[in-house]
Amino acid sequence: MHQSDWLLWLLHGEYGVSDYNNTLKVGYDPEIDSYPSWLMSQPYAYMLPSVRAPGAPIGSIKEDVRAQFGFPKNCVVCTGTTDSIAAFLAARTTEPGKAVTSLGSTLAIKLLSNARVDDARFGVYSHRLDDMWLVGGASNTGGAVLRQLFTDDQLVALSHEIDPSVPSLLDYYPLPKRGERFPVSDPNMMPRLQPRPESDTAYLHGILESIARIEAKGYNLLKELGASMVEEVLTAGGGARNDKWTAIRGRVLGVPVRKAEQTEAAYGTALLALKGANTSH
């Protein structure tokens, strides 16, 4: 039982109910809407949860819980989703080609696509979202590298001096340590952060632009594997606060890039619950 399913069970009391996002990693195939036959033939198959769409109504909240917390009598409990998908839903991107890049300690991209893409070589897999697919991959580059080289105050001050309209000629592959998984799968890849120019501003500019190139390569790889072409990128994570970096990424990616207004997983989960509540009445 997944954590979210257990928490929901405490609310509605119906054991063994999940959604097709959480059950993907226990073998559920969202494309055929069932577990594969080889999995169902296993002696433990009876333990697999029943599966519904994310945000689907399960049932009314248990009376003792309702009374304890003061919920209305018509309160409905709905299936959930994973935390990363909930964060994507918070950005309210609903059309193929729309994407969310999370710039935290690492760089993770998620693209809404008409086609499903799965490729274990690069750790690429797809989650179903209604009648579309959320295709994603994650690189080891990102904010962790920046924190190894600059303080927060330096990042703010040096970014202010960067002209994002001017391409950097420095070519790096910023990694916090050896190993990359996406868009290049190479456990032995070493960080490339040399040569370092005398100017700290130029050095930061080169690193930010190099990470943007890795991001662009990631979206290009998803397209080569069969996903929809990226048309707009919303940004989540700490990197979304850097306007100069956003401008650099827009130039490198060649598509509009902006900060997502909402990125909290709790907000996306609330949107799912609202959808489920509306369908239950």
Which helices and strands appear, and what pairs or packs with what?
Elements: H1 3-12, E1 17-19, H2 37-40, E2 50-52, E3 57-60, H3 63-69, E4 76-78, H4 83-90, E5 98-103, E6 107-113, E7 125-129, E8 132-139, H5 143-149, H6 152-160, H7 200-224, E9 232-236, H8 243-253, E10 257-259, H9 265-280
Parallel strand pairs: 1-2, 5-9, 9-10
Antiparallel strand pairs: 3-4, 5-6, 6-8, 7-8
Helix pairs in contact: 4-9, 7-8
Notes on the protein architecture:
GO terms for molecular function: ATP binding; D-ribulokinase activity; D-xylulokinase activity. Residues 127-274 form the Carbohydrate kinase FGGY C-terminal domain. InterPro entries: ATPase_NBD (IPR043129), FGGY_C (IPR018485). With 281 residues, the chain is α/β, with parallel strands linked by helices. It has two domains: 3-84 and 266-279, Nucleotidyltransferase, domain 5 (2-Layer Sandwich); 93-260, Nucleotidyltransferase, domain 5 (2-Layer Sandwich). It is built from nine helices and ten strands. The longest helix has 25 residues, at 200-224. The chain is elongated and about 65 Å long. The model has no long low-confidence stretch (mean pLDDT 93).
